[in-house]
Automatic annotation (TrEMBL), chain A:
Residues 100-284 form the ABC transmembrane type-1 domain. The keyword Transmembrane applies. Pfam families: BPD_transp_1 (PF00528). One of its GO terms (cellular component) is plasma membrane. It is found in: Cell membrane. Keywords: Cell membrane, Membrane, Transmembrane, Transmembrane helix, Transport. It is a multi-pass membrane protein. This is ABC transporter permease subunit. One of its GO terms (biological process) is transmembrane transport. It comes from Nesterenkonia alkaliphila. PANTHER family: ABC TRANSPORTER PERMEASE (PTHR30151:SF19), ALKANE SULFONATE ABC TRANSPORTER-RELATED, MEMBRANE SUBUNIT (PTHR30151).
């Protein structure tokens, strides 16, 4: 039995290099120490919300101020670009006339109706794939194809079929939402925990019971996470529908203003649309949080 | 206290399983045996363990007993009635708790009763006192995500219990828990077992766990797997933690361990 010291000597006397020697040699070759005692960069540092908000407001003020001044002093052609003061004027006129609200309501209701219809039909379609593999494998490629297709290209056809009324706008909004949610639901239904299905089977549960108690609830988060994307698409569908053929709505107002060179009105339409999309987005976000908490118990 | 349906006799008679395995798409599938015919017996109120390394066919046997797969040969009998290949006769629990995250603990534990079509009010009336009795009374309305791993497994076991079948299959139910919690759960299972007198088939690869809990241990080995030894555990009941330090306990452990080690050496030779 040798002592540890003797072992060390024996190993280092060996022509082959000992494991500890390898590390020692490596250490000798390593460049001068730079990694030690370094302070961690500001990964976890928080921003100051007051500063951020002040900067945001400042940015808007600079853009609007620059735009206004540029237009007044001839650096920006107000015929093409209009100017904040003209847009403001346009706004006060529109608010006074009152029909503007009806246009906003029209666009919003066709977008929301399309959003709801698309979500329901898409979810039903996606979930139906769970019932039969043959059916799913037959139909799914076509749904993927429809999803990939720029559905905006269908707009003229949709307007021909559904007319210039609100139906065509709803149809376009629905089409945009439907395909995405169908694929979301199908993907969600595929990821259902196999062991939970086995457990349900061992209990002797029927297919319908498994579908209702396991497949539908575990697919819902997929649908819900798609909502914030699809609300924007629904709005886009409604606007495009109005572009193609309509006599009401924000999209119609924008196209009409554009063709009569009323650029201030175009901008006003765009800004109102942006505001509308933020309102819808925040609304869906709140819905998403509530449903999400319902599903997971809000961890 | 004695609630629910007491145990039945579960008899696994010469159950074996072969799959058609596709090794190469050009040649026809090869019939591969994964489980040699095995016999397992669990009498009313008995807990029997199946011990063996992974891949020895434990889980296959388990699925067959649960009725999720049909055996290639042999039959499953409960109190003499042939139930081979049919589900709904046994409660079933895995290492994963498989609690539905969107349901409260209360709604999770009555799932089995719900599937059986028991009225919700009756199911709740049965579940509430059990949750209270086993330390989950304050968590009725909680979601699984809010509970610790041990509590979730407790809820999963209660769900299995409330399915109210005479036979329960537990596949490494405590495998994912830390050592401390696992021991607590094992002691708890012994209490539950003493109260309800179910027939339990328990799969594990933890020898300590098997010896502590079992009336009988089936040691499985090999590919295809088979039962290589059957050991009656004749330790006094009711058992508690103190039994784990007795010489008899150590002897049983050594007996199981030596069989597995010997088998391992046979393979490596």
């Amino acid at each position: 039995m040798t002592t540890p010291t003797e072992t060390d000597q024996r190993v280092s006397a060996d022509p082959r290099i000992s494991p500890t020697q390898i590390l020692q040699d490596l250490e000798a070759k390593a460049p001068e120490e730079r990694t030690r005692g370094r302070r961690v960069a500001a990964e976890g540092r928080r921003t100051n919300p007051v500063v951020v908000n002040a900067l945001r407001i400042g940015l808007v003020a600079i853009v609007i101020g620059g735009w206004e001044l540029g237009a007044r002093f001839g650096y920006i052609n107000p015929f093409f670009w209009s100017s904040p003061s003209r847009i403001w004027e346009s706004l006060t006129q529109q608010v006074a006339s009152g029909s503007f609200y009806m246009d906003i309501l029209y666009t919003m209701s066709s977008a929301v109706t399309g959003f709801v219809l698309g979500t329901l039909i898409g979810t039903a379609l996606g979930l139906s794939f769970w019932w039969s593999k043959t059916y799913a494998e037959t139909v799914e490629p076509y749904v993927v194809m429809f999803e990939a297709l720029p559905k905006i290209a269908l707009a003229p056809l949709v307007v021909l079929v559904f007319g210039v009324g609100i139906e065509s706008k709803i149809a376009l909004a629905t089409a945009l939402v439907l395909a995405i949610q169908a694929l979301n639901a199908a993907a969600g239904a595929k990821t259902v925990d196999k062991d939970i299905i086995r457990m349900m089977n061992s209990l002797g549960a029927s297919r319908m019971k498994i579908f209702r108690s396991v497949v539908v609830p575990s697919t819902l988060p997929w649908i819900i996470s798609g909502l914030r994307v699809t609300i924007g698409l629904a709005l886009a569908g409604a606007i495009v529908g109005e572009f193609i053929g309509s006599n009401r709505g924000l999209g119609y107002r924008i196209v009409y203003a554009g063709s009569t060179y009323d650029i201030a009105m175009v901008w006003l339409g765009v800004f109102v649309l942006a505001l509308l999309s933020i309102v819808l987005y925040v609304g869906v976000g709140a819905l998403e949080r509530r449903l999400g908490n319902q599903l997971t118990g809000g961890k | 206290m004695s609630v629910g349906i007491q145990g039945s006799t579960l008899e696994v008679k010469g159950v074996g399983k072969s799959y058609e395995v596709v090794r190469d798409s050009k040649v026809p599938p090869v019939l591969t045996e994964v489980l040699q015919p095995v016999d397992v017996l669990a009498r009313p109120g008995e807990l029997v363990s199946i011990v063996g390394p992974s891949g020895c066919g434990k889980s296959t046997l388990f699925s067959i007993v649960a009725g999720l797969e049909a055996p290639s040969v042999g039959t499953i009998e409960i109190d003499g009635a042939d139930v081979t290949g049919t589900t709904g006769h046994v409660g079933y629990m895995l290492q994963k708790d498989m609690l539905l995250p969107w349901r409260s603990i209360l709604d999770n534990v009555i799932l089995g009763l719900e599937v059986r079509g028991v009225a919700r009010a009756d199911a709740l009336a049965a579940a509430r006192p059990l949750l209270k009795e086993y330390g989950l009374g304050d968590y009725e309305a909680a979601r699984p995500a809010q509970l610790s791993g041990g509590m979730r497994q407790r809820a999963a076991l209660l769900r299995t219990l409330l399915f109210n079948r005479p036979i329960m299959l537990l596949d490494e139910p405590f495998g994912a828990l830390d050592a401390q919690t696992r021991l607590q759960m094992q002691i708890w299972l012994l209490e539950v077992q003493a109260t309800f007198m179910k027939s339990i088939v328990f799969v594990t690869h933890d020898i300590d766990e098997a010896v502590l809990l079992s009336d009988r241990i089936y040691v499985m080995w090999g590919r295809p797997g088979s039962v290589v030894q059957e050991i009656e555990i004749d330790l006094p009941k009711p058992r508690g933690v103190e039994v784990t330090t007795t010489p008899a306990f150590a002897e049983y452990k050594e007996q199981v361990r030596s069989i597995l080690m010997r088998k391992k050496e046979e393979v490596s030779l």
